[in-house]
Amino acid sequence: MDLKQVAKDTAKVLASYLTYQSVRIVIAQLSETNPPLAIWLNNFSTKGKIQDGELYIRELLLENQDLGFRIMTVREYLAHDVTEFLPEMVRTGIQQTNMEHRRQHLERITQLNWSVSSSNPETSIDSEPNLDNLSS
Fold this sequence. Notes:
Blueprint: H1 3-33, H2 35-47, H3 53-63, H4 65-119
């Protein structure tokens, strides 16, 4: 396992996600101050390559430099504030959800085993044990 590559890929995905969130924030701001520009940015974003944050920014800068810089500024601000809390939140979140998945899985297999054993009278709790085979 190449941890450096995993870290690079994770950072790229996170940067793209922060770009997406920045676009949402800017569209919300523009909806209040400049609705036609908000509509334009929304339309551009649905046609653009927003899944790849860096490609999206490059394309936006060619179309509307001011919006491109605005989104980069918001993205930088989000990156600064979000990444401060992110490591602990990710670790805690993964630990909690893993525990929940394990608990649900254990409940599921326990219920499955219980229904199989209760449908088989030889292994049922209510049935009497067969003592005939225990003669020594």
